[in-house]
Amino acid sequence: MHKPFTRRSVLRAGVATGGAALLASMPTRHVFAQEPEKPSEIIVRAWGGEWVEALKKGVSDRFTEMTGINVRHDLTEDNEIQPKLWAAVAQGRVPPIHVNWDTTTNATKSALRGVTEDLSDLANLANTTELAKPVGLEGYPIVNTYGYVYVLAYRPEAFPDGPPKSWRDLLDPKFKGRVALYNDGIGFHFPAQVAGGGSLDDIPDNMEPCWDFVREMKAQNPLLGEDPDFTTWFQNGEIDAACTISTNALAAKKNGVELAWTVPEEGCKFDTDCLWVPKNLPENEAYWAKQYVNLALSQESQQVWLDGLGLPGVVPGLTPPEGLENDPSYPTKPEDFKHLIRISSAVQVQNESDWFAKFKEIMQG
Amino acid sequence: MDALNRTLDIVWPARMMPYTGWALLMPALLLVGLLVLGLFQMADSSLHTLDRSTFLPSENYTLENYRTVVENATYGKIIWRSVLGAVLTVFFTLLLALPYSYIMVRTSSSAVRKVLLVTLFLPFFIGQVVRAYGLLIILGTTGVANNALGLVGVEPIRLLFNFPAVVFGLVQYMLPFAVLMLAPALTAIPRETETAAASLGANWLQSFRHVVIPMAKPGLIGAGLVVGTLALTDFAMPAMLGGGSQDFIANAIYDQFFRTADQGLGAALALMLVVLGSVFVAIVISIFGAGTLGMGGKK
């Protein structure tokens, strides 16, 4: 629906843009003197462990320092906060958080449902790469903040002949019960499609090769879990290999677990996470929530935040964390993406539930 | 006391006396009413499919979600696993709870009774998730159990992330509930009945089988019902000890609500779980009679 510009909307856009520009360029708490009333705190949903520590250090602490507004991190899982946000907006209630740190696929569902604020006027968007722009959505109802790879993480001790070259290497009988996947198969569907002899072009119409490979993997009796499980399982010696986000492997390695990761010949899934602001917040709180997102897109915040996560950001000129330059989990150049699999959010949003259900069907058998 | 009576006369005058019973029931009725209201809302939600272009429920009413549950083999397996898990949990829990309660009630040593009570209540105060996590540590590949096996030359074996591990966790979790429900039933059995059985020539085992167990039936049925319904609807043990491949119905409901955002399908599954639990209770009551549970019905 087309909405005509009004004097109020033009003024509001002007104030927001001007404020954002100030926030980006003048990091002192005084620049906000003319801004909307500050809430005592804003609540940012985040993943726990290394994830929230990195966000705190890179964005939240800086935001508090610059604005005087405290940032509280809500560690409710992204999947669990989603129905709460949807219900709050549908019922005209104030949502329980100000900023949602979310997977792009999940966030796209929220954007399609119309519960996200427009972020197009954030000043720092001007300095972001194409990766920041959500695909298949108009404008910026969400903003991608970094990319990540679902790598094949492994214990070098279990692979004495060198890193696994193919996902099929995990079918070796010696890895029975020693491989871990996400419990909905996320990150594994696309490389499985290739490892099963299929083509990525057939996604989503013909995923049978993927399911064939998942069935082969099921015979290996894999463990199925969530992010924290992988670190625990590696630490406790329960598994030798896992399809997991490189950040989790990096966290386990930092915790003293001897671990390495690789991108096998079939490739690994590359995806993005994002930030978004839910609708129905009081106007001043929505404003400051947007400023938080804006700050997360500044070069300084991206550098610190993503150093902690070991992931490539959406701002040019970031320095890779120590040891991750030219690492397959840290793609920055076009050639780095050669073995990484990117499937559009639109396809994932439409089909993800079916893929999860099919993966469960095989694994629960 | 007079002041209290005067206050009571003001708040609840004598003419209201016929309604006292209803007034006492009101909080419970309100709670149940809220639950029923929620169930009606879930029933409505279960009749709408998810429109994936907007991620809103569709306008039309349909039984599609129920058809999905019935036709999808995965849900069949999950429902079967939940029922089997609940039945096995009831069996093993009662098997362990009965002698435990009996010794706790009958022992003449107060020290033994205290030790048994403390042993019972200590894990009772610890939440289910913490207990499951404890089992992860104890039964893990490098855990205490495998270390003990290693002492006698047994290679580490996978004790976790399978169906037996889930049932083990459930039994461990349910044991205090069952003991607490059985203890009053056993206390109510006069010692003299066992003495009488012994004086008529019954040994301890015969007395236990023919006197104690039949007389403890209300406690056994009540404990079985509580343990069975709690196990049938359990979420944490299958999630934590099942390694992702031993889901119960509650895990499938969680997935629909929180993983795929399909509230309609989640609601359909939830209502089917309510029906399944109700049928389970109805079967037990129809077999053993409400009187067995001390509800004054036909014995």
From TrEMBL, chain A:
Keywords: Periplasm, Signal. The keyword Zinc does not apply. PANTHER family: SLL0237 PROTEIN, THIAMINE-BINDING PERIPLASMIC PROTEIN-RELATED. This is ABC transporter substrate-binding protein. It comes from Pseudohoeflea suaedae.
